[in-house]
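Hi V.,

Quick status before I head out on leave. The structure for the redesign project is tokenized and pasted below; the design run finished overnight.
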């Protein structure tokens, strides 16, 4: 019975971690909601992404996210292929994801261009007071592609 309980706890943890990542994506797609994103981190958590720097602690993450929508006025995050590894005691996890972000991004001239960002996330998570929080999010953007034309429907 212990093995079945351990497996059930691991499945529940994986589901909860996927829900935290989905909430993160939703906050990003909601104008990079700085409060919503910051609350998903451990107090001393870090966020970093290719071309966007490294930001440490909830307050610094909140400040950074409050300005992202000036550079990226619209975004749609699609996160896929979760690979989640739990620690033996179930209090820590490493999660890897593929990322596809379709967005509008302001270029150096100030013009807004439709783009697609393709990359991978590596997240470290910790369970705090029964809830999963990011200790770190590290996003490697592997391709940044300008979309030639918008489609309307």
């Amino acid at each position: 019975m212990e093995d079945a309980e351990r497996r059930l706890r691991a499945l529940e943890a994986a589901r909860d971690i996927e829900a935290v990542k989905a909430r993160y994506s939703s906050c990003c797609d909601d104008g990079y909601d700085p409060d919503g994103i910051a609350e998903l981190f451990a107090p001393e958590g870090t966020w970093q992404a290719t071309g966007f720097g490294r930001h440490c602690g909830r307050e610094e993450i909140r400040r950074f996210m409050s300005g992202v929508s000036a550079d990226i006025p619209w975004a749609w995050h699609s996160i896929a292929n979760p690979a989640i590894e739990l620690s033996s005691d179930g209090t820590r996890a490493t999660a890897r994801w593929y990322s596809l972000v379709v967005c509008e991004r302001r270029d150096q001239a100030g013009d807004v261009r439709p783009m697609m960002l393709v990359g991978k996330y590596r997240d470290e998570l910790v369970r705090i007071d029964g809830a999963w929080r990011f200790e770190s999010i590290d996003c490697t953007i592997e391709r940044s592609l300008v979309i030639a034309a918008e489609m309307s429907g």
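Above is the designed sequence. The two ends are 54 Å apart (CA to CA).

G. will cover questions while I'm gone.

Best,
W.
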